[in-house]
Write a structure and sequence with these properties.
Layout (H helix, E strand, L loop, with lengths): L5 H17 L4 E3 L32 E5 H7 L4 H5 L5 E4 L9 E3 L2 E2 L6 E3 L3 E2 L11 E8 L3 H4 L6 E7 L7 E9 L4 E11 L4 E13 L6 E14 L4 E15 L3 E3 L26 E16 L4 E22 L7 E29 L2 E17 L2 E11 L18 E17 L3 E15 L4 E18 L2 E12 L18 E15 L2 E17 L5 E20 L3 E16 L18 E10 L6 E10 L2 E2 L7 E2 L2 E14 L2 E10 L7 E5 L2 E4 L4 E9 L1
Parallel strand pairs: 3-35, 6-9, 15-17
Antiparallel strand pairs: 1-33, 2-8, 3-4, 4-5, 6-7, 8-9, 10-11, 10-37, 11-12, 12-13, 13-14, 14-16, 15-36, 16-17, 17-18, 18-19, 18-20, 19-21, 21-22, 22-23, 23-24, 24-25, 25-26, 26-27, 27-28, 28-29, 29-30, 30-33, 31-32, 33-34, 34-37, 35-36
Length: 691
C-alpha cells in the first residue's frame, strides 16, 4: 500500500490544479445558496411512531443534523455530528475507538438506542460511519412505545442515502495534519424506468488521531436498494459493513478519595496515551435491513421489516489505577478480550390506517416487534497490572496471555403497541399510545423477566399552521445496565425498571427558513450506583428537570445556523442503604449547562466561497454520584471554509476544517469511575469531485 503524508497529498491536489490551469482548463464560479434541499433543517423525521412526519407534529424534542451540516463540518463520527445538539456529552471513554455518549446526563445504551432507518437497533461498539448517511436524527426522551426497553436518553437514528432522480457520482478524499488519509466514493442511480434505485458508498483510510500510538485503519462498504414493484408494493434493502483497527487510548481511573474528597490531577497533554500501540481495538460490524410496504387500499398499509446487526471485536483495554496525584505513579490495568460478539435480530409487523369522517380523523398505528439480542463475552485472560506514570509515561511491553472461554447471554424484547393520532380539525391533535412489553434476560449469573404495559399521551395545538404548542406524558420500561469490566460483579445484568417523562414545548417556523423549538421536561428514572464492594447496583431514583431550546435553518440568503441549549437540574432523589450518601447529589457526568452553536456564511463577493465557525460548551460535571470531585467546564472552537467551483463542467468542492482550534487540554469525559481527555487540534483538508 502506498502511504502519503498529509503534506504530500495536499501538494498533489495543488499540482493537479496547476496542471489543469496549464492545459487551459478554467475554474468557474459556483454560487452556493443552501436552498437546494440540503439546508440546515429537515421537513421530516424518520424515527419512532412519527415516521415521515413534520417535526412540528412530533410532541417531543427532536433534532436533525442534516447532510449539509455534516459536510460543512467535515464530521466523521457520531459525536462529531451530535455535538450540534445540546445535552450531548461524552461518557466514560475519550472516543478514540467509538463514541460512548450521554444525552441530558443519561447514558445512550449502545445496543438499543442507535437505529438504522428508524428501525434496526445497530450496535455502537465501533465508530458508525457517516459517509453513507443522509442525516442523523435525535429523538430525545422516553421512546419505549416504539422501541421497547431503552433508557430515556433518546434515540439516535441514522438515515441512509438513497438513489435520487438525479444521478450521483462523487469521489472525495481528505488528509489531516496528524497523518490520517481517506478516500470515499459515492454512486447512485435509478434504473428500470425509474422503478429501481441503487446507492453505493465505499470508503477506506488510515487513521491517526494525533494521540500517541493511536493509529490504525478503517473501511466501509454499503448499498441501499429500493424497488417500486407495483403501485401497491415497495421494497427497500440496506446492507453495510465497516471495520476499524486502531490503538485504544488508556482511560484514567479516579484517584482514591481522602476525607470524602477526590483530588484530580492536572489535565494531561491531549496527545498523551498511557497504552502501548499493541493494545489494539479491532472491530467490525455488518448491518442488514429489509423493508416492504404494501398498500391495502386507500386507507390502510402494511409494513414488514426484518434486520440483523452483528458486531465483533478484539480488545486490549487499559486504565490507570491507584494514581498518586503528586508523583503521577500508578498501575496500568490491562484487560484482554478476543472474539467478543454482539448480535441484534429485529422483526416488525406494522399496519397504518386512517379512519373517521369530517373534522375528526384517526391515524392508527398497530404493530408488533420482536428483538433478540445475543452476546458472547469473548475469550478473556487474567488482568495484568504494569507500572505506569501519568506525568512520565512508560510504553508498556507487549503481553501475550493465556485465554479462557467466555459466556453467552441473550435478551428477548417483544412488544405489541397501538398508537392513535387523532386530528380534531386543523388545530388540535391528540396522540395516545400503549405498549405491552414481554421481556426476558438470561446470562450465566442472572435471569430476569418482566411484563409491563406503558402508556403515552400527548396533546398538540396549532394556533398558526407554522406553530405548535404541545404537552406529553410518557412511561417506559428500561434496562438498567450490565456491570462493566472494572466492577466486582462484571457482566451481571441488573433488572429492568420504569421511567416516566413529562414535557411541554413549542415549535415554530414563524421565522422563515428557521425551525425553532423550546421545551421544559422532567424525567424520573432508576438510578445505578457502585457500592462499597465495588459492585454495580441499582439503588434509588434520579430526577432530571430542564429547559431545552434549539434553532436551525437558513437566515436570509447567505447565512445558515444550527444552535441549541440545555439548562439541566438533575438530582438523585431516592437511594438505597448501599448508597445513602448520594441522596440529593447530582448524577455523575451530568452538566448543568450545554450550548452548541454553528454557523456558515456564504460570501456574496466571492461566488462559491463560504466560511464557518462553531463553539461547543459543556458545563462542569461530577465525577461520581457522591460528587467527590468535578471536571471543569470547557468550550471548544471549530473553524472551516469551503469553496465550490467548476472544473471542466464538473463541480469541485475544496474544504478545510480545524477542530479544537485553540488546541485546548480538557477533561472531555467522566463516568463509571473514569476520566478522559479531549482530542488534540486537528486540521483536515478535503476535496470532493462530483463527476
Amino acid at each position: 500500500m502506498i502511504r502519503k503524508t498529509p503534506v504530500a497529498a495536499a501538494a498533489a491536489l495543488l499540482l493537479a490544479a496547476n496542471a489543469a490551469s496549464a492545459q487551459g482548463v478554467t475554474l468557474d464560479d459556483v454560487q452556493v445558496t443552501g436552498r437546494d434541499g440540503r439546508g440546515f433543517n429537515s421537513r421530516t423525521v424518520q424515527v419512532g411512531a412519527f415516521r415521515d412526519l413534520d417535526p412540528l407534529d412530533v410532541p417531543l424534542t427532536n433534532n436533525v443534523v442534516t447532510r449539509e451540516v455534516i459536510d460543512a463540518q467535515g464530521a466523521r463520527t457520531v459525536y462529531g455530528a451530535l455535538r450540534n445538539t445540546a445535552g450531548v456529552t461524552r461518557s466514560q471513554l475519550s472516543g478514540s475507538t467509538y463514541d460512548n455518549i450521554s444525552i441530558r446526563g443519561i447514558l445512550v445504551e449502545n445496543r438499543g438506542n442507535y437505529r438504522l432507518n428508524g428501525s434496526l437497533p445497530i450496535i455502537n461498539l465501533i465508530d458508525i460511519p457517516l459517509e453513507n448517511k443522509q442525516r442523523v436524527e435525535v429523538l430525545k426522551g422516553a421512546s419505549s412505545l416504539y422501541y421497547g426497553l431503552v433508557p430515556p436518553s433518546g434515540i439516535v437514528n441514522f438515515v441512509t442515502k438513497r438513489a435520487t432522480a438525479e444521478p450521483v457520482t462523487s469521489i472525495a478524499t481528505s488528509v489531516t495534519d496528524h497523518g490520517a488519509v481517506d478516500v470515499h466514493a459515492d454512486v447512485g442511480r435509478r434504473f428500470a424506468d425509474g422503478t429501481m434505485g441503487l446507492r453505493i458508498n465505499a470508503a477506506a483510510g488510515r487513521e491517526d488521531a494525533g494521540i500517541d500510538r493511536v493509529k490504525g485503519d478503517r473501511s466501509l462498504a454499503s448499498l441501499a436498494y429500493d424497488w417500486r414493484v407495483s403501485d401497491i408494493l415497495n421494497i427497500r434493502a440496506d446492507l453495510e459493513h465497516y471495520r476499524k483497527d486502531i490503538g485504544e487510548q488508556a482511560a484514567i481511573a479516579l484517584p482514591a478519595a481522602a476525607n470524602g474528597v477526590i483530588t484530580l490531577p492536572p489535565v494531561p497533554d491531549n496527545k498523551r496515551n498511557l497504552a502501548g500501540e499493541w493494545q489494539r481495538y479491532d472491530a467490525q460490524a455488518t448491518n442488514m435491513l429489509l423493508r416492504g410496504d404494501l398498500s391495502l387500499g386507500d386507507a390502510w398499509s402494511l409494513t414488514l421489516e426484518t434486520g440483523r446487526a452483528e458486531t465483533e471485536r478484539d480488545r486490549r483495554f487499559s486504565q490507570l489505577n491507584g494514581l498518586d496525584v503528586a508523583s503521577g505513579a500508578g498501575n496500568l490495568a490491562i484487560f484482554f478480550a478476543n472474539g467478543q460478539r454482539y448480535t441484534n435480530t429485529n422483526h416488525r409487523v406494522e399496519a397504518l390506517g386512517r379512519l373517521g369522517t369530517g373534522a375528526i380523523q384517526h391515524e392508527l398505528t398497530i404493530g408488533y416487534t420482536h428483538n433478540q439480542r445475543e452476546a458472547y463475552s469473548g475469550d478473556s485472560a487474567t488482568t495484568v497490572n504494569v507500572p505506569q506514570n501519568l506525568y512520565a509515561p512508560i510504553v508498556p511491553a507487549e503481553i501475550t496471555p493465556s485465554f479462557r472461554p467466555g459466556a453467552n447471554s441473550a435478551i428477548r424484547d417483544k412488544g405489541v403497541y397501538l398508537f392513535d393520532r387523532v386530528l380534531l380539525g386543523d388545530q388540535w391533535q391528540v396522540l395516545a399510545g400503549v405498549r405491552a412489553a414481554d421481556y426476558s434476560n438470561v446470562s450465566p449469573t442472572s435471569r430476569y423477566g418482566a411484563k409491563k404495559t406503558s402508556p403515552n399521551l400527548s396533546i398538540l395545538y396549532k394556533p398558526r399552521p407554522h406553530t405548535t404548542v404541545y404537552a406529553s406524558y410518557l412511561e417506559g420500561l428500561e434496562e438498567t445496565g450490565t456491570a462493566p469490566a472494572n466492577r466486582a460483579n462484571s457482566g451481571e445484568i441488573l433488572p429492568p425498571a420504569v421511567n416516566k417523562q413529562k414535557e411541554i414545548g413549542v415549535k415554530t417556523r414563524a421565522f422563515g427558513g428557521v425551525l425553532a423549538q423550546a421545551a421544559l421536561f422532567q424525567i424520573d428514572r432508576p438510578q445505578t450506583s457502585v457500592d462499597a464492594g465495588n459492585r454495580f447496583i441499582l439503588g434509588g431514583k434520579s430526577r432530571y428537570r430542564g429547559l431545552e431550546a434549539s434553532a436551525s435553518g437558513e437566515i436570509g440568503r447567505d447565512f445558515s445556523a444550527i444552535a441549541s441549549l440545555v439548562l439541566l437540574d438533575a438530582e438523585i432523589v431516592t437511594v438505597g442503604t448501599a448508597n445513602a450518601g448520594e441522596l440529593g447529589r447530582t448524577p455523575e457526568n451530568t452538566p448543568r449547562k450545554t450550548i452548541s452553536l454553528f454557523g456558515e456564511y456564504r460570501l456574496p463577493a466571492v461566488a462559491g466561497l463560504s466560511i464557518n465557525a462553531g463553539a461547543y460548551h459543556v458545563g462542569r460535571r461530577a465525577v461520581n454520584n457522591l460528587n467527590q470531585a468535578w471536571v471543569d467546564a470547557y468550550t471548544t472552537l471549530s473553524l472551516g471554509a469551503r469553496y465550490v467551483t467548476k472544473l471542466q463542467g464538473r463541480t469541485v468542492t475544496l474544504q478545510a476544517n480545524l477542530d479544537n482550534a485553540t488546541d485546548k487540554d480538557y477533561w472531555a469525559t467522566a463516568g463509571n469511575g473514569l476520566i478522559g481527555t479531549g482530542a488534540p487540534r486537528t486540521l483536515r483538508l478535503a476535496a470532493r469531485f462530483d463527476l
